[in-house]
Every structure is written in structure tokens, then in C-alpha cells.
Amino acid sequence: MTTISMHRTVDAPRTVVWDVITDHELYGEVAPNLSSVSVVEGKGEGLIRRCVDTDGNEWTESCTHWEACQSYAVSVHVDNSVFHRRLFTRMDGEWRVSEDRDGVRITITFDFEPRYGPLGVFISKYFASIAPGLIETIFDDWEDEIRSRSLDEAGRETDQTHTNRGVNALSR
């Protein structure tokens, strides 16, 4: 199994951060590899969302964990995705918010099992090489949205919103 995990800390209200990272349609806009994400049914744990990537590949994901204002996780329906079925036996993602001394820490973690036995290491290395850039773009765009929603919530502009770049982690 390969795990890719990154985080970023933002100085913003936790509820605003949670609302941004759980806005599935927004995720489809900020993830550079996606063209859209829409909720097919449900809410919280059990939610099913449909994703379309920039190449037109489609798949669904089920929310396997939901703890309001804490974390949620999804599992890709690998067997129903031509793209994922070719490369993975399993792919899961988790989005988490937690308190940090400088604000609210957002963590994105992807766990996956590549296909093809020992040759799967090349799939893992490829995704480990592209994931940081994709996740940084998501963080950048989320941060802009968090700032915008924080300003709307406060009703005034502030220069106090800042971030601390997180660390990247890859484990097998």
C-alpha cells in the first residue's frame, strides 16, 4: 500500500474551513485533474459522489467515514471505473481538519494499492511524483475560498489570514 499525505495550516474559523473542504462541487473545480464532482445521493457517511476527470473518465466514490468538523473519507468504486481498475486494486482518500498552534490544519491523505505486483511500484512512484503538485493547487484554491468565505462571515476585510505550508509524506 502507498500513502500520500500533505497538510497546510490556515488562520481561519474551523467551521469555514470545514465548509470549504466538504463542498464537493468546489472540489471538482479546484482539483486540477478533475472537471467536476457532484453528489449523486446521500449526505455524510454513505454519500455517493460522481467524479469526472479532465480526460472524461468517470467514476463514483462512497463516503465511508464522516465526523462533522473533523474528517471524512471516501473509497473509489474501482471496479466501476475503467481508469482506476487498470491501475489500482483499491484507492481511498481522507480529508481532515484539526487544531494547530497557528490555526486550522487541513490534511489530505490518499491510500492506494497498485496493480501488477512488483511492477506496481512504478505506479506508486508516478502518483507520488504528481500528487504533491495537485494537492498544493487544491490547497491554494481552497485557501482563496476560505479567505473569501471568512471575509463574508466577518463582514470586513482582514490581512491576518495566512498559511504555513505543510509537509509532504510518502510511505509504503
Report on the structure:
A hairpin with a 4-residue loop joins strand 3 and strand 4 (58-67). Helix content is 33%, strand content 42%. The radius of gyration is 16 Å and the shape is globular. Helix 1 crosses helix 4 (120-154). The chain has helices at residues 14-21, 24-30, 82-87, 120-154, and strands at 2-10, 34-41, 48-53, 58-67, 71-76, 88-100, 103-114, 163-171. It has 172 residues and is an alpha+beta fold. Strands 2-3-4-5-6-7-1-8 form an 8-stranded antiparallel β-sheet.
What are the salient characteristics of this protein?
single chain; 172 residues; alpha+beta; 4 helices; 8 strands; globular; disordered C terminus
Write the SSE topology.
Elements lengths: L1 E9 L3 H8 L2 H7 L3 E8 L6 E6 L4 E10 L3 E6 L5 H6 E13 L2 E12 L5 H35 L8 E9 L1
Antiparallel strand pairs: 1-7, 1-8, 2-3, 3-4, 4-5, 5-6, 6-7
Helix pairs in contact: 1-4
